[in-house]
Specification:
By secondary structure, the chain is mostly helical. The protein is built from 14 helices and four strands. The protein folds into two domains: 36 residues, no CATH class; 383 residues, no CATH class. A two-stranded antiparallel ribbon has the order 1-2. Strands 3-4 form a two-stranded antiparallel sheet.
Length: 432
């Protein structure tokens, strides 16, 4: 009887459009031999499909810190306004539980489904409808950024960032080889971004619209866009941004307050002054959890955009630095996932999601420290707010799924240095 030889392994090619997967092309006559072969395959895939644990741990630490610090920052205000100190704690805990559940679910969905045109255009269409519908909602703090769904506030501008990232990543995957041709690659991106930014500015929400522009700019730059176009776009955008800021009284007031907050310490400059006092009085180790003073009706809305000031006051320089380190870890691991992604779409998707979190964190911390005018952008994963928390956790779930597929790549493979686009494994390499 001829000896049974182990069937030769081969790698799947263009049909799967994904990382190489070990297949066994031959049938085995005896069930025990087939069982052992399948068992080896399952154990091999189970061993290789691993998410980025460091990225997940850093995200989880920020979410846990959010629940604690939202309660610490909001308890006096919630007790005074609503007669219940734990009101915002319960809401933030519920949002965190929902967000982590969605992260776990999304982490198990193959990220390649987000490149399908039907999915992308459905997302863009729903986001556009939501951005138009929110303009007819009742104003909150002189802005129409939320509308209620079953008693829950939804902020469609947060969904717009995810939809834009899906669209740009899918388009650059197909057209990045001609990214410097305006009508071929840049014009479709510009049309979608201008449409979304225009609708967001009508709310008005200047900070989120500029964040969306920065995310798109980083992704296009990584695709190899010529520096001349970047410089030209910046020069053309500068006058428009100046007119957009100076033509509106409250935006102009924010810029003037940023330049000299002490010219009106009890009016326009009150919030940033109280934020700087909170950061400065925290010292090295802070005053202790729940022991902060500025949240006691000095710092307006301390549980939202200025929660980092409460962290610096109660946990000191050490606690504030730990928060910054967590965001640095998220950014580092996200960029690492982008460089190791098995295809170009995954690389741009990971880059966009990482930029979304990094840009928000940078702007928020800069505002709290008085390095930028007030923007109204929350601190990702930490500030009170359901829409921002859930959308960012969904983004991290997608990023973790990309990291799972990146773990299937050959370990120790050299990463090209000639550009970000070349760092992703091309399909021709998968077919080899």
């Amino acid at each position: 009887m001829a000896r049974l030889r182990r069937p030769r392994e081969f790698r799947c090619g263009e049909a799967s459009a994904g990382p190489a997967v070990i297949l066994f092309p031959y049938r085995v006559m005896f069930r025990n031999i087939r069982g052992r072969a399948v068992g080896r395959k399952v154990r091999n895939l189970a061993r290789k499909l691993k998410s980025d644990r460091i990225l997940f741990t850093a995200t989880l630490l920020l979410v846990c810190l959010s629940v604690v610090m939202v309660y610490s920052a909001s308890a006096p205000m919630a007790l005074e306004r609503y007669g219940k100190a734990t009101m915002f704690l319960i809401k933030q805990g519920a949002w965190a539980l929902l967000g982590l559940t969605l992260l776990w679910f999304v982490m198990r969905i193959d990220y390649r489904v987000y490149r399908e045109p039907v999915f992308i255009w459905t997302c863009l269409g729903l986001v556009a409808i939501a951005l138009v519908a929110v303009l007819f909602s009742p104003p909150v703090n002189n802005a129409r950024r939320w509308f209620g769904v079953a008693g829950v506030g939804v902020q469609p501008s947060e969904l717009a960032k995810l939809a834009a990232i899906f669209f740009i990543a899918a388009l650059l995957e197909r057209r990045m080889h001609r990214v410097n041709e305006l009508s071929y690659a840049l014009l479709p991106i510009a049309i979608v971004i201008v449409l979304l930014v225009g609708l967001i500015l009508l709310e008005p929400d200047f900070g989120t619209s500029m964040s969306l522009v920065l995310i798109a700019g980083v992704m296009v730059f990584a695709a190899g866009l010529d520096y001349r176009y970047i410089l030209g776009a910046a020069l053309c955008a500068a006058p428009a941004i100046y007119l957009l800021v100076m033509s509106t009284s409250y935006r102009r007031q924010r810029v003037l307050t940023f330049l000299d907050p002490w010219r009106d310490p009890l009016g326009a400059g009150f919030q940033i002054i109280q934020s700087l006092i909170a950061v400065g009085t925290g010292g090295l180790w802070g005053k202790g959890l729940m022991q902060g003073v500025q949240k006691l009706f000095y710092l307006p809305e301390p549980h939202t955009d200025f929660i980092y000031a409460v962290i610096a006051e109660e946990l000191g320089l050490v606690g504030a630095t730990v928060v910054l380190l967590c965001f640095c870890v998220v950014t580092w691991r996200g960029l690492r996932v982008a460089l190791r992604a098995p295809d170009t779409f995954g690389a741009f998707l990971a880059l966009g999601l990482t930029t979304m979190v990094a840009v928000q964190a940078f702007i928020n911390v800069s505002v709290v420290l008085g390095l930028m005018p007030t923007k109204g952008i929350p601190l990702p994963f930490v500030s009170n707010g359901g829409s921002s928390l859930v959308i960012n956790l969904i983004g991290m779930g997608i990023l973790l799924n990309v990291s799972q597929h990146a773990s299937l790549s050959t370990p120790g493979a050299p990463v090209p240095r000639s550009g970000f686009a070349e760092a992703a494994v091309p399909r021709s390499a998968v077919e080899a």
